[in-house]
Each structure stands twice: as C-alpha cells, then as structure tokens.
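so my prof wants the structure for this chain in the tokens format not the other one, which i didnt know existed until like an hour ago. anyway here's the sequence
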Amino acid sequence: MRTTTVGELRILLPDLDPEDLDSASDLTDDLSDAIVEDASWRGAELKDVRIRSSRITGADLSESTWEAGTLSGCEVTRTDFSGATLSGVTIERCAVTGSRFTGARLTDIRVKDVLFEGCRFDYATLSRVAAAGAVAFVDCVLTDATWSACRLPDTVLRSCQLARLELDSCHLHGADLRGNSLHDLKASLGNLHGTTLDEDQLSDITHLAVTELNLTVRRR
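here's what i got, hopefully its the right format
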C-alpha cells in the first residue's frame, strides 16, 4: 500500500504491480488482481459484484446499475460512469482519476481511503454517502451537483469547481474546504458547520449568509 497526503489528510491507497495482474475484459461477480483496459460495460446490471486489487483504465460503465458489492484496493482511470446508478456499494482504498460521473446517482455509498482526482461529478446526485475514513476530492468538477444527507466529516476538497453545488442536510464537520470558491454554493450555513476555511473565503460565507437570511444591505 502507498499513501498520499491532501492538506492534513493522509489517505491509504493501493500500490498495484502490473506484473501481478492478469488481463481481463469480462465483469464477473468477483474480479480480483486484474488489469482491464477499454472494456465496454455500458448499461450493465451489476449486483453484489466485488472488484478487488485491480487496475481499470478507459472502461465504459455509463448508464449502468450497480447494486451492493465492493470496489476495494483499485486504481480506476479515465472510466465513464455517466448516468450510472450505484447503490449500497462500498469503495475502499481506491484512487479514482480522470473519471466521469456526470449525471450519476450514488446512494447509500460507503467510502474509506478514497481519492477522487480530476473527476467530473457535474449534475450528479449523492444521497446518504458516508465516509468511514479519509476521502478527498482534488481538481474535481462538482458544478450543479446535489449532495443530500451525506456524512462526509474530515473530507478534503481542493481546487474543485463548486458552482451551484447544492448541499442539503449534510454533515461536513471537520471538512477542509480551503482553496475552493464557495460563492455560488446552494446551501444553508448549517451544512458548513465545523468546516475549515481560509480568509479569502470569508466574503463567500458572507454572501451565503446574506442570501440565507434574506438580508437587505444598504449604504448609509
């Protein structure tokens, strides 16, 4: 295993050796120690599928449905989950890079030691996504997405695009939001309780407060 640090968060990630992996193209109920490149699983219906210690690159899982199962110890790169529906899936010790979740629906997902880097979550809906360990979003697009009843304490977001990201009844206590513009968030201030910000974001928080409280600000 290898580790990476984002802000003050240390994330445990897989350290896969391609020589230890076998080439695969079929998505079985238990895919382990595999290397998958450019596989097309568009519209697949998956249930209780377990993918472990594998490297997936350039796969197409758009419009697929994945119910229950696990994604553990994997590297997922340039993979398309656009329009996919994931429910009850556990994602643990994974690095997800340059992948697309545009319009995807993630419900009752458990995440632990997961790094999302350079991924697109625009128009995605995350419902009851819960972090059981370190999670970070780096250089991700989260515009027009919705997070509802998510429990993501101590999560780190860095250099992400958050325009019109809607937060509804989320628990983000201890999350590090430094380095992102919060100006166009669609969220009540309670969703940001206990988060860490930098001084440059105070004007964004003031804007959110004025909007939420319907204040009228006038010059003397």
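also thought this was worth mentioning. The mean pLDDT is 94.
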